[in-house]
Design brief:
This protein has about 200 residues and is an alpha+beta fold. It has 2 helices and 8 strands. Among the domains are: about 35 residues; about 100 residues, Immunoglobulin-like. A 5-stranded mixed beta sheet has the order 2-8-7-4-5, with no helix packed on it. The chain is elongated and about 140 Å long.
Length: about 200
């Protein structure tokens, strides 16, 4: 009977230890997780939704060209009209900024802006990323990305050479045909005069 009672006490102590361990783990999780969770909600409370769209015709660009894109912004907080800044950056595969520009504008609940950046002529060909960052009072609030390719600038020297050659040949051909036409017209006029003279003599 005593052995049975002793076993029950040990079992109860074991269950108590397990319960205390579970409560301790839950308490630790609560201490670290709950503040973190509420902190995340506080950050997201005034967040902006930002989307960057690069039209298909600008997905492949040449060195020295100008890329155009659209930035769509949604103010989830729904606050009154406010001033924001948009920082446009072209970033290479090594996360190095190739070119950057910042614009300031005012928005309310939502807005859409068309932006552009000049691609330097000395950049290497490859994959690049357009990074648009939204700033409020110099604090980054949201960002959007879009990718595109930069190709080596096409050498148009031969193209212009062909155009010049074709233009010269066309001009020479026009002059030649014009001179030939003049000769033909003179011959026709001469024949017409001779024909009239012959007809006049026969008539007499």
């Amino acid at each position: 009977m005593k052995m049975k009672k002793k076993r029950l006490n040990m079992k109860g102590m074991k269950n108590l230890y397990i319960s205390l361990l579970i409560l301790t783990v839950l308490l630790i999780i609560g201490i670290f997780y709950i503040p973190f969770k509420f902190q995340g909600l506080a950050v997201q409370d005034g967040v902006f939704n930002l989307e960057v769209e690069i039209p298909s015709i600008y997905k492949t660009m040449e060195q020295g060209a100008e890329i155009h894109f659209t930035t769509k912004i949604l103010n989830l907080a729904g606050e009154k009209r406010m001033d924001i800044s948009l920082r446009y950056e072209i970033v290479d595969e090594d996360a190095q900024i190739v070119v950057s520009k910042t614009e300031t504008m005012a928005i309310e609940t939502q807005a859409s802006f068309v932006g552009s950046l000049d691609i330097p002529e000395d950049v290497t060909q490859g994959d690049y990323e357009l990074l648009v960052t939204l700033l409020v009072n110099n604090t980054e609030e949201a960002e959007g990305r879009g990718s595109f390719k930069i190709m080596e600038q096409e050498d148009k020297t031969m193209y212009y050479t062909y155009i010049i050659i074709i233009s010269i040949i066309s001009l020479a051909l026009i002059i030649y045909l014009a001179s030939k036409s003049k000769i033909i017209l003179e011959k026709l006029r001469t024949r017409s005069k001779i024909h009239k003279m012959i007809k006049k003599k026969l008539g007499n």
